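Input record (one chain):
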Amino acid sequence: MPFSSHDDSARPLNPRHNDSSQTENRQKNLKNTEIHASEHQTQKVAWNRLEIMLLVGSVILITLNAFEVLATTTAMPTVVQELGAHTWFSVATGSALAAQLSATVLAGALSDSRGPRFVLILGMGLFVLGLTLCALSGHILLFVIGRIIQGCGGGFVIVPLYVLIGALVQDVHRPTVFAGFSLAWVLPSLIGPGIAGWVTGHIGWRPVFGAVPFLCLLALFPLIQVLRHLNTGEKQKNPLLFSLTLMSCGCGIGVLALQLSGATSGLLSYLLTVFGLALTIGVLPRLLPRGTCRARSGLPSLILTRLLAMGAEMGATAFLPLLLQHVHAWSADAASIAVTIGAVSWAAGSTIQSRIRNPRWRARLPFIGTLLLSIGVIPFLVLAWPDAPIWPALVSWLFAGAGVGLMHSTISVLALAVTPPEKHGKVSSWLQVADSAGAAVFMAIASLILALWGTHIPVGGPEYLPACVLLFVVSVSATCVAYRFRADTVSALHRA
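The corresponding structure, as predicted from the sequence alone:
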C-alpha cells in the first residue's frame, strides 16, 4: 500500500479505510505525481504575485521564529541556572513544545472550518504575548507559563501557513517553498546563536526573549496582502471541534505532566508520572492517522518517521549545548557553534531535496535522512564524559543536520501531494503534531529518566548519559520506520 489520504470526513483524526477504493486512488495519485514531476522537469511555471507575497511573508516569520528557537536553545542553560531551577531544564525547554502539540491540533480543525486567516492572526498574538512574559519573568513557574503561551502561538502560526501553501502555491513550486522555510534558518543559524551567546554572557538572557515580539511586525505586511486576497469560501462549523479541544489539551497536559515529573520529587513525581503517561498514551494516538503507532504502510509510517526523527533532532539540539556548557565547561557563545552547525546543515539538506524531482529518489529521501541522523548521534554517547573529545560530535552533527533537512521537507511535500486541498488543514495538523509530539515527548522521557538516573548515578559518573542513549534509540527507530515506507512506496511507484 503506497500512500493513505485518509479522506473520511466523519472522523478527521482517525479516518477509516476503504481498501478496495482507496488503494486504486492512491495508485492514481502516485502515478500522477510521477507524471507531473517528469513534466515539471522539462518546463518552468511562472510564480504569481500571491505566491511571492506568501513566500516572503512566511520566510520573514519563520526567520524570526528561527532566531528565537536557536537563541533559546543557546540561552536556556543560563536561564535555568539564574532562576535557580537546574532540574527544570527539560520543562523550560519542552513546555513550549507540549503547548504547540495541543495548538496544532486545534489549528488544523480551525483552518479547515474558519479559514487560515483567523488562526494565523491568533497565533501571532499569542506568540508575542508568550515571549514578552518570558522576558519579564522572575520565577521559573512564570517563565514556563510564558513558554506555554509562546508554544500555543507557534502551533497556531505554522499550520495556517501550510494550508495557505496548499491553497495558493502550485505543485511544482511547493518543494521550493518548503526549501525556503529551511533556508530561512540559514541567517539565524549563522549569527543567531552567536548573538544570543554574546547577549546572554554580557547583558543577560532577557533580551533574547524580548526582542523578537517587536520584529514580528515585519512579517505582517506581506502576509496581510495575501490574506486580503484569500478566498475563504463558506465557513462550516466543525462538529468535532469540542472533542478535538479536549483531546489536544489532554495530550498537551499529559506530556507537560511527564516533563514536570522529572523536575519534582517524592509522591508528587510519581503521581505526575502516572497521570502524564495515562493521558499521553490514551490521547496522542487519536491525534494522528489511524495506524501510526503500528507504523502502518503509507501516510501513517510517514508521519511516525517524522515524529521519531524530530524527537531525536530536538533532543540533540537541546542537549548538545547543555553538554558543552555543563560537562565540558564551554561558554554560552562558544557552545552556540553546535547550534549553528546543525541549523546550517539542515538548510543545506533541504536545498538538496528541492533539486531532486524523480519520484523514486524522493521516496528514498526520508530513509536516507534518518540514516544520516542515526549515524550522526553516535558520538553523543561518549560526549557525556568530561574527558571525551568534542570534535567527533560536532562533525557528525553536521551530517545529522543534513539528514534532517532531507527528511523533513520531503515528508511535507509528499503528504500534501497525495491529499485533496480541502484536507490540507488536517494533514498539516498531523505533520505539525508529529513535529511537536516527537520533540515534546522526547523531552518528557528524557526528564523522567534523567531524574531516575540522578538517584542511582555513581560518583563522578556521566550525568547526561541516559539522554544520549535515548537519542540513539529514537533515531534508529525512525530509520527502521522510514525504511519500511521507502520499500512500500518505491514498489508502488514501479507498479504504477
